[in-house]
Structure formats: C-alpha cells, structure tokens
Amino acid sequence: MSDAAAPTRRFRGADNLPNWRNGLFILPFLIVYLGLLVYPLLWGMWISFQQYDMFDKSATFAGLTNFTNLADDPIFRGVVRNTFVFVALTVPTFVVIGFALALALNRPTRSAAILRAVFFGASVLSVTIVTIIWKMMYLPGRGLISLFIGLFGLAPISFLTSANLALPAVAATTVWWIIGLPMMLFLAALQQIPPELYEAAALDNAGRWRTLWSITLPSIMRTFIVVVIYEIVAQFQLFGQALLLTQGGPNNTSRPIVLFIYETGFRDWNLGYAAAASEVLFFLMAIAAMLQYLASRRSETH
Amino acid sequence: MAARGMVGKTWGDRIVLGAVIALAILWIVPIAWVLALSFKANSELMMSTSSVLHPPYTFKNYADVMATSGVFHWFVNSIVVSGTATFLTLALASLAGYGFSRTEFRGRDILFVFVLLGLAVPEQAVIIARHQLFTDWKLHNTYLALIMPGLSNAFGVFLMTQYFRSIPKDIDEAAMLDNASRFKIFWRVLLPLTIPAQATLGIFTFLLYWNDYLWPLISATRPEMFTLTVGIASTQTNFAQSEGLGFLMAQAIFAGLPVFIVYLFFQKYIVQAVAGAAVR
What we know:
Helix content of chain A is 67%, strand content 2%. Chain A is mainly alpha-helical and 302 residues long.
C-alpha cells in the first residue's frame, strides 16, 4: 500500500483488461440472486395465472381469472382500502412528528442525545415484542390505558376489538415502534445544512419561522421526499402488527394486503389467488418506487 | 446549529423542551409498564394490574422463563441464523462489490443494473414461489431455509460497490504493479479498508434477520426450529385470558434485552445502518 508507485507507470498488465475471470467475483452472489429472487419472482407470476385445486393440489392454467376474482372480492377490496387507510394514518404522522423531533433534538447537548436514543430505541425491537408491549397497553380492564382513563372514571375501551379503533390502534403502535427512523433521516439532513446560511439569516434578523420556511425546509426537500416515499413503501407491507394485535379483525376492518396474502396462501393454500394478490401489491409498490426514482433524479438536477 | 439556540433559553425553547419531554415519557412508559409487570406474580395479575407500583415483586417469572419456555432454544436459533446469514451476506456482497467496482468483464454494467432492479422487488412478491421451491428442495424446518432467502438481498451489493468506489484507485494500482493477483489485492489490500461499511452492513443484516417475522413464520413450522421472533409470537395467543401475564412479560423483556443492549453499545453504527438503508 505504498504511494511510491510512480504515477507515470500506469498498470498495463493483462490484469486490467476485460477478462471473464473477473466475473467470478460476482458469480456467488449472482447464483443466489437468480435462484432465490429472480426465479421465484417469475415463477410467482406464473403461479398467479394458475388455479389450484384445494384437494389434490393440481394446477390448471386460468388466465386472468385470479385477478378478475380479486377485483370482485369484497374482502380483497377491503384489505386494499385498509392498507391505504393505514398508509394515510401513519405516513403523515411519521413525517410531521419525525421532522418536529429532529428540529427539537438537533443540538449537541447530552440531554438531546439521550432523547434521540429514547425515540430511536424502540425501532430495534422485533414486531413480536412491540405487540406484546402494546397489547398490555390496550387490554381492556387490565391494560395501562384502561387503568389510566379509569382514574377519571371512564369505562375501559376495547381498542383492538372495535371496528373503528382497531386499525388506528395498529397505526399508533407502528408510529411508536419506528418513529426513530424518519427522525434520524431528518436529523442527518439538518446537519448537512451549511451553518453560514443560518448566520446570514441571523444577520438579517430573520425570525425563527422565517428561518424555518426559507432556509431549513428548502434545504431538506430531498429528504422529505425520500422519507415520504420510503415510508409509503414500508407501510404498504404492514403485516406482523396486524396479525399479532388484531388478527385482521374485527370483521376484517384491520386486515392489510400482506395478511390477506399470508392467509390465502399459507392457511387456505389457495396459491394462485395469493400469488395474484401479491402481484397487485408488487404493482402498487413499484409505482411508489418509480416515484422515488423520479423524485431523486429531479432533485439531483436541481 | 450554533447560529441559534446558543443565545439563551427563550419561552419558545421551554415550550418545545416540555413537549419533547412529554412525548418521550409516552415512549418510555409502555416499556416501563411491561418491565414492572414482569416482576409481579401471575396470580396477582389475574385479578388486577393496578398494584404494579406496590410490592411484593418477584423474580419467579424470569426463573420460569429460563426453566420452562423454549425461549432459550429460540434465542440460540436466532443467533445461529442471524450470525451465519450476516457472515455470508458480507462475503457475497464484498466479493460482488469488488467485482462491480474494480474489475472489467463483458456485461458488467448491465449486470449491475440487473442486480439493482432487485431492490424494487418486495419479499411478498416472491414468497409464495419461494415457499414452493423450498418445499421441493425439502428444506423447510432447517437452518438453511431460514438463512438462504435474505442472501439474495441486493442492498449489500449496492452498498459495498459504492464503498469500494470511494476508495482511491492508487491503492490497488500500486499493489497491481507488484504483480499481486486480483484476489490477493481484494483480500489483503482493499478488504481491510472496508471495515466501516462491513460494520454498517453487518449490523443492518443482523437486525433484519433477527427481527424478521414473515418468512420464518411460514418456513419454520416445528417449534424447535422457531426463531426468537416467531417463538415469542407463538406464545401470545389468548392474551386477554392468559393466566401467565407476568411470565409473558418476563419473556418479552428477556427476548428484547439483548438487542437493546447491543443497540446501546453500537448506537452510532445502528443508526447509520438503518438510515443508510432507507436512503439507498
């Protein structure tokens, strides 16, 4: 690793020419990638055109039947609606609270560091532990929320078995669980803003709100877009919290798409139908991913 | 932000601070609640949980967790699966990252784009066919079945390729003049320089496997092959009627504590890993 190599003697050995042997570095990953991602992806598309017989597990080609059935299936339409509602509940909350926390905690003090750790800490826990914690909060009668509102003489609320409250309760748990990620992304962006901009604003006697509007927000526009789209993609995949907190109930009001896929595929073994539902989810998420790509390109050209 | 905030505490500052602390309490209380309940006798919690602030407290739930539940076994499973998968991911991603960033071969750039496209494929789009595949290969309920799927994640290759690109080329050019082989340059010269990226990718991969729920849930159907996440979930049914609430709480604390401790030690890397994965 010496710098002694004379820059005039650029290497011109055979080593730097294109050589198929160099592909061997890629080969191990490529085999895994083809076998465990590309092949199942294509096979899954094929399965989505198949009709599976529940008894002898045989499959016959069914064209688009699974997809037209999905479109007519009130339960599937319900889970798509639930998923969109869940995204609409969580994503704005992630953006607003995440940004507010980042603004408040973007200072070099010890207390700010501790508070950052508090808000981020829950994100490292698994969904199973998070749902145990929140079941113990929501439990009517013996849960902490029940005890707390009981102090004011209010009757216990059955959050997880109420048609109106089940999905919002799942959303609240999700926000508690992973608010730390958007907060950290916003913090990273805030720290990229050159301090000179703030010094200039201070010289102009710009107030706090003025500074926020005309300096902070425009500087972190790209992060805003990244956070929004990343969270849309992530929250589309709601699964564990719904399965463990509500099992999708009551009456399907908190059942998301992935839980539908899981139950159709791995409980009812209706593989063709489940695969078709997963293609629909893939399509919805691909749109979000495409938006992310376009948004990042746009902000790079600016 | 030295430009503001250093001037002294205004009323605005105090209100913000008060609001953040109130919110932080909301974030701490649920964990403190479960922690406190885990030290309460099951029989007491059957009637009521309101005595949580008063003694008697007991360690019996933790003793029971160690003695009777499968938690310890699942914990070992999770360590084996997450550890092996992290090691293999680092190996595959480092090799491929070096290949994509430092060597020439036909079709390299097209192949790279082909791999990057994998980032847009969600697990749910492949999970049904993958489950069939593993059934055909008779792999379900083995460690291999739990380890393999995540290895196809293209994120590591992307991260390592970017990192190798950021290392000045002079370093390996010098080694090349000494007629070192490609692999030797990779192994001896460049790999040691990628340790920060290895740490980030390693922690990210470990957490991803440790907390994964969907795939182990459908692949591991025998309790002795459960990971910690699936195992703890399997004990959660009939929560409201449970006679062992204190035991369940102790189990959750026992399962959550190791990751939490690791988090406290490697906070910086974990934040980097998680944030870096999001902005890819």
